[in-house]
Amino acid sequence: MRDATGLAAGLALVATMVWAVEDTSGAARERLMEGMGGHAATLGRMAQGRIPFDAAAAAAARERLIAASGDIAATFAPGPSDDPRSKALPSIWDNYDDFTAKAAALHTVATGLDVSSVEAIQAGMGSIGQSCTACPSAYRTN
Predict the structure, then answer these.
(1) Where in 4-141 does DSSP place strands (E)?
(2) How far apart are CA 129 and CA 56, in angstroms?
(3) Between vectors from CA 46 to CA 114 and to CA 11, what angle results, nearest 5°?
(4) Which long-range contacts (CB under 8 A, 24 or more apart) does 56-60 make?
(5) pLDDT below 50 — which residues of the chain?
(6) Considering the entire predicted model, what is its pTM?
(7) What does the pLDDT look like over 72-89, one tens digit per residue?
């Protein structure tokens, strides 16, 4: 049963990643960013002791954060969205190299995050937090 559950979760993750890269709408961008925030929040709550450490959940959150951060450049590449609800500022495309460099930095930090214990997550969450907050202040409306 555990193998089947893992396989199903893996297939769902791959399907989500493929769908996210193909869909560059404002709604897809928002889902991508909200998803990353959720994955980082799961790890942050574990690091803070607000939820119990769960190795499988931590590993899943890390993998989803890696996948999502790797999709940022492709999801934002086509240019500004005509979605009036979009919180993305035009400065993303005015400074696209900086924006994608910040996304790549988050991807690198997420890839290197050790989630083998609460202490390991605690040690790495500062870098995740810095990388995650690097973009909204410059590239997102409130």
Answers:
(1) none
(2) 21
(3) 65
(4) 58/115, 58/121, 59/115, 60/9
(5) 1-21
(6) 0.79
(7) 999 998 788 777 878 888
